[in-house]
Design a protein that fits this description.
The structure is a homodimer. The first copy, chain A, is elongated, with a radius of gyration of 20 Å. In chain A, the strands form two sheets. A six-stranded antiparallel β-sheet of chain A has the order 4-5-6-9-8-7. A two-stranded antiparallel ribbon of chain A has the order 1-2. The first copy, chain A, is α+β, with helices and mostly antiparallel strands. In chain A, a hairpin with a 4-residue loop joins strand 8 and strand 9. Chain A has two domains: about 60 residues, Winged helix-like DNA-binding domain superfamily/Winged helix DNA-binding domain (Arc Repressor Mutant, subunit A), CATH 1.10.10; about 140 residues, Chorismate lyase-like (Chorismate lyase, 3-Layer(aba) Sandwich), CATH 3.40.1410.10. The interface between A and B is large, with 52 and 52 residues. Strand 10 of chain A pairs antiparallel with strand 7 of chain B, so a sheet runs across the interface. The structure holds a DNA duplex (19 and 19 nucleotides).
DNA sequence: TAGTGGTCTAGACCACTGA
DNA sequence: CAGTGGTCTAGACCACTAA
């Protein structure tokens, strides 16, 4: 219908199907071939639609498996951007990751809410520091619920110094997607000391929530960024 | 060579060509057909490579013209994300834009540097407020160099209340790309009064630089966001 | 092993831009 | 108008995943 490209019509069809509840978060969408048959278009067209939805974070495509539906979000007034998990995982070999401390903890209300369905309010919180050429760039509090695999996570921690989400991966917890909300804070003394800035300095803090393929929150990180050793930049592109 | 997909090899070829100076910012790259002939691959493969570079903000593709090279950036340690110009232009009809004041100004050092080649250090600065359902969400200082088209910009301002970058567009200044750096600040009394928060509150400030197709900075905005009426969110996706 | 998504080709026609 | 990128097709083979 109309002058809209076929792949855009298909994208909208799929989004509508998701939003009217035909597929829930974590469900598998029909296969590419199925869409070809159902709408009478070529596979390249179906792929373009699904790749766009993937780029917009609405679905996750897994080679050999299929296309999963992601959680929908209903933001208020906000600017939302897209980024790559890897950019935040800091796999740059020049960055060093160090875990400062770890302890059991009963989650504060706001953190507990993020985990939603988590069976237990009890978990662990770790304090870590990421540096680059011995200059601190980020201090993070990492909240992990107490799951079956806690032992694997601890074992992975013991063998290597890697950012927490890498550790989660090596413990078999695959992260499909995340979301980070950025806000300004006046830094607390403990974090300030780690970053080497005066307590009370205004800093950027990102609250990251990582989700697995089923849309369950599996980790929450409160990342506090150094004011000058680190830059938060966003490229603005035409649509 | 190796098991790398053809389109990735081509992407790297193009990036290498750019970084060794074969094409400068603002130049046109070879056409799709030219790449097909030169590398002996199909047009779909060439297109995939160029579309990826476009999604990464390294080139801008213009229907009927060709593919332009964008400015390269050499960030220090940073997290870089991608977003859409339109998300920042706030074309949401529920948002209202109001220009509070405008005056001639001699640019401060840091702003002047951003304009780089601007012939004149003299320009204008406007103070504006964007609200949503009569709640303030952003106050912005907009710096514009004094160009030939200043008259057109002012004429556009007089006829409609639109965000500055929309105004620039309607004055014939096409914006190809932008960049925003986010940092925390303690808000000054004037901005605080506009947003309705106490002076000294820690807030997010984005310094946006808008570039035309030739890579020249044509506008700088210092955007200060309301702490609760606005959210800065980033989706984290697998690569 | 069967079925999925990932890559790739060789063609076609259309829509936009500038001269 | 000629030339560009935008959309689309109908095939092919490969790489990955789960059972």
């Amino acid at each position: 219908m109309s002058g809209m490209p076929l792949y855009l019509s298909l994208q909208n069809e799929i989004l509508n199907a998701i939003s009217r509840g035909a597929y829930a978060a974590g469900d598998l969408l029909p296969t590419e071939q199925e869409y070809c048959d159902r709408y009478g278009v070529s596979r390249a067209t179906v792929r373009k639609a699904l790749e766009n939805l993937s780029a917009d974070g609405r679905v996750v495509r897994k080679h050999g498996i299929g296309t999963y539906v992601q959680m929908t979000e209903v933001p208020g007034q906000s600017v939302k951007f897209r980024g790559h998990l890897e950019d935040v995982l800091l796999h740059d070999p020049e960055n060093s990751f160090r875990r400062i401390s770890r302890q059991a903890c009963r989650f504060p209300d706001d953190i507990y809410k993020l985990f939603g369905e988590a069976v237990d309010r009890q978990g662990s919180v770790s304090l870590s520091l990421i540096s680059r050429r011995s200059k601190p760039i980020m201090a993070g509090l990492i909240y992990l619920p107490a799951p079956q695999c806690e032992h694997d996570v601890e074992a992975a921690y013991a063998t290597t110094e890697q950012p927490t989400v890498m550790i989660l991966r090596s413990a078999g917890i695959k992260i499909a997607r995340g979301h980070q909300r950025i806000r300004p804070i006046l830094v607390e003394p403990e974090i300030a000391a780690l970053l080497g800035v005066p307590a009370g300095t205004p800093l950027l803090r990102g609250r990251r929530v990582y989700f697995d393929i089923k849309g369950r929150a599996v980790a929450v990180v409160e990342a506090t960024y150094h004011p000058t050793n680190y830059e938060m930049g966003i490229d603005l592109l035409p649509r």
